[in-house]
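hey
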């Protein structure tokens, strides 16, 4: 049995229950939602070779640069998250700050991106698992079977509800970060040729500016996900307090993790042999684990599978909540706002997102190859994030300037947005001039296609006569003020 959410957001002046399972998770669970969507070990173990290939010895500096950019991006976001902890996330932020049309385009871009990303991540994780198990243990199961199982687990978690999803994320994320830091620290105490040094943080070592900027783009994508705490805001206790803390906390924790781990991996490999790290046919983390941990690379494999599964679960949660939040206002068909009464999950969104992810994973991943799919869609995600973050910056300025002038702050709502927007535009330009190699070359064009599809829905459906009622509700905020720890079902 499914329940349709009413089109009107209010009855007798009181906001209706959103239909989601409110008060289900605390700060720890909300924090893990963001960290899991960032995907710590997958984000570092399988980008370090690429960033080193593009930036050479300066690879750790690309992660530090991306961290600083994301930290500045987060400044205006924190204020919006405090005032607008809605499942709609960016849709609600931009609608409340700029207007419903810009809000829809922003929400659409984010929703379609996090709907599709699990296809690439599941394909990549399945391929890593298949390659390692086949090469070392002779288990010849094709990658797409592992990928299908991963997406099936994501569907089950999304169907059962936020509590079971967060429990999975807590266990998996803690384990994978322990493995990543453990390998990095071991590398520092057992350095390769070149010894312990700070060459990775010296800007003078940047030999190829275009490659350096491209590495930053990939590093920014490795950070993205810190904003996803907003997607589960309505299901958390005291969301106006918890969501901003989770966004900032996840970004800082992952920033430290990435920078330390990237540096430790390079030191463990040997800074005098950087070219071999970049060209390694096997992920450097596996090579280092076998050398430093006496052949225990199976721990790295488990951590990577954990990370891939975790980010797929987290992205599924973000995608389904964002789609639900948009549909609840009428900007998408009403069936996307249906919830399953027992588990209080946005069930139609769960079905559609899972089907799309599986379809792309198999239909595109099989002919293109899982690694190519990952590289292409991963970079596409970064190009999608750039306009989303820029629109969010503008929305923060307008929201606080017009609606909360007493909270308006020059640093948070002018300086930080201008700095981060300038950095994002510069990074985008330097990432496509010159154009990257196949298949990453398709990334900016795919991002443009996402936007054109959204514009088609906006003008073809939402701005037609008689279909514009959603515009008055686009920036709505459900009644989250009454959510407290007393309503919690499980402390996570």
């Amino acid at each position: 049995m499914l329940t349709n959410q009413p089109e009107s957001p209010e009855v007798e002046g009181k906001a209706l229950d959103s239909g989601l399972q409110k008060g289900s998770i605390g700060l720890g669970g909300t924090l893990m939602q963001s960290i899991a969507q960032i995907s710590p070990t997958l984000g570092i173990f399988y980008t370090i070779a690429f960033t080193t290939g593009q930036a050479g010895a300066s690879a750790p500096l690309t992660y530090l640069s991306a961290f600083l950019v994301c930290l500045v991006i987060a400044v205006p976001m924190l204020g919006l998250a405090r005032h607008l902890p809605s499942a709609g996330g960016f849709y609600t932020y931009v609608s409340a700050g700029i207007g419903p049309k810009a809000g829809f385009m922003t929400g659409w871009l984010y929703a379609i991106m996090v709907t599709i990303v699990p296809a690439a991540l599941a394909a990549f994780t399945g391929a890593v698992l298949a390659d390692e198990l086949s090469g070392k243990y002779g288990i010849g199961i094709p990658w797409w079977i592992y990928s299908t199982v991963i997406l099936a687990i994501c569907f089950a978690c999304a169907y059962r509800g936020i509590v079971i999803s967060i429990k999975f994320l807590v266990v998996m994320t803690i384990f994978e970060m322990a493995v990543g830091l453990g390998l990095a620290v071991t590398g520092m105490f057992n350095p390769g040729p070149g010894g312990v040094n700070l060459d990775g943080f010296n800007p003078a070592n940047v030999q190829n500016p275009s490659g350096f900027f491209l590495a930053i783009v990939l590093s920014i994508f490795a950070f993205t996900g810190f904003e996803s705490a907003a997607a589960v805001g309505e299901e958390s206790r005291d969301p106006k307090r918890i969501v901003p803390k989770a966004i900032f906390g996840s970004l800082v924790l992952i920033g430290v993790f990435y920078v330390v781990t990237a540096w430790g991996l390079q030191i463990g490999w040997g800074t005098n042999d950087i070219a071999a790290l970049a060209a390694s046919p096997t992920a450097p983390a596996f090579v280092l684990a076998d050398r430093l941990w006496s052949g225990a690379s199976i721990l790295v494999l488990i951590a990577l599978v954990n990370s891939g599964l975790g980010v797929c679960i987290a992205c599924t949660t973000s995608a389904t909540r964002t789609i639900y939040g948009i549909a609840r206002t009428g900007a998408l068909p009403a069936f996307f706002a249906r919830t399953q009464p027992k588990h209080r999950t946005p069930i139609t969104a769960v079905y559609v997102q899972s089907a799309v992810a599986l379809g792309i994973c198999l239909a595109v991943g099989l002919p293109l190859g899982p690694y190519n799919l990952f590289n292409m869609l991963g970079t596409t995600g970064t190009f999608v994030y750039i306009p989303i973050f820029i629109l969010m910056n503008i929305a923060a300025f307008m929201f606080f300037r017009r609606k909360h002038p007493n909270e308006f702050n020059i640093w948070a709502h002018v300086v930080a947005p201008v700095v981060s927007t300038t950095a994002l535009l510069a990074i985008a330009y330097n990432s496509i001039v010159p154009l990257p190699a196949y298949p990453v070359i398709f990334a900016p064009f795919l991002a443009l296609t996402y936007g054109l599809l959204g514009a088609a829905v906006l003008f073809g459906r939402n701005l037609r006569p008689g279909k514009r009622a959603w515009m008055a509700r686009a920036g709505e905020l459900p009644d989250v003020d009454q959510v407290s720890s007393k309503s919690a079902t499980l402390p996570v």
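The two ends are 28 Å apart (CA to CA). The first strand starts at residue 10 and ends at 11.
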